[in-house]
Amino acid sequence: MSDKKALELLQRADKTAQSKGWFSGPKFDEAGDLYEQASNQFKLARQMREAGEAMLKAAQMSLKLGEHSDAAQRLVAASKAFKKSHPQQAVDALTQAVGLLAELGRFRTAAGHQKEIATIYEVDLSGPKQAMQAYQLAAEWYAAEDSVAMANGCLLKVAAFAAQLEDYTRATDIFESIAERSVDDQLTKWSVKDYFFKAALCRLAVPDSVGAAQALERYKDLDPGFASTRECRFVDEIIADVTKGDLQAFTDHVAGYDQISQLDNWKTTLLLRIKHQILQAEDDLT
């Protein structure tokens, strides 16, 4: 029943958007309301793509009236309808909304929706490069609004994707920069060891064991407590293994660390790439 009512509302909305009176133009405001009502009915019928498309038309009516804030709100609603079954259309709707919000100077709100775009690329569309770019833009807008914690959260995502895409220099710079800013922050200092750990792995994946060793000493100077952490001792061990080209020792140290502190997929991937570097060096010698 809901879908039948939705179609009726949609037809009425189309006619209202196109009809013209003797003394007035099309009734875009009334058409917009009808499109929105149609969208809600489609949602009740669980026809989410149709719900999103009807809400897009409602947003177009708001734009014709010059009501950009209302248009952005309707675009966000359209993206929510699209998200589960048509993620690319959700991204497209949100991108339009973000553009309107930026024009209105609502950068924090725009940043939140930009972050949502990044999440859709990351989770639903498996697009690491697009996700990285979206997180970068969100970070810039959060930073412009002095939302440091939110900006750093997005930048850490950028660093993770950069390393995944083998842009180790970019990843290292971000991890080290955030670690340095976090050392004296009571809320974030406990994460510093992880940032330094990730930065060191990125340096070893280049490969640059000399640079990693020098960086490790700098990390110890920046955070005296880092030297006593399991992460620091582990990095120290595998730097020595890479320098010597000792694959067995490297494998043993990785296994030993993983038994105590389970490695996540990201760190495991980096360590496998470092292992490949050792194997490659052995092949070059033979």
From TrEMBL:
Molecular function (GO) terms for this protein are: soluble NSF attachment protein activity; syntaxin binding
Record-level GO BP terms? intracellular protein transport; SNARE complex disassembly
Tell me where in or outside the cell this protein is found. Answer: Membrane
- Main subcellular localisation: membrane
Instruction: Tell me which UniProt keywords the record has, alphabetically.
Output: ER-Golgi transport, Membrane, Protein transport, Transport
Q: Which InterPro entries match?
A: NSF_attach, TPR-like_helical_dom_sf
**Family matches, as Gene3D superfamilies:** Tetratricopeptide repeat domain (1.25.40.10)
**A GO CC annotation given for this chain:** vacuolar membrane
Q: Which is a Pfam family this sequence falls into?
A: SNAP
- Superkingdom of this protein's organism: Eukaryota
For this protein, the record's SUPFAM superfamilies field holds: TPR-like
Its record classes its membrane topology as: Peripheral membrane protein
According to its UniProt record, which protein family does this protein belong to? Belongs to the SNAP family.
Q: What does it do?
A: Required for vesicular transport between the endoplasmic reticulum and the Golgi apparatus.
PANTHER family (alphabetical): ALPHA-SOLUBLE NSF ATTACHMENT PROTEIN (PTHR13768:SF8), SOLUBLE NSF ATTACHMENT PROTEIN SNAP (PTHR13768)
Name under which the protein is recorded: Vesicular-fusion protein S17
Species of provenance: Coemansia javaensis
The protein's gene is named: SEC17
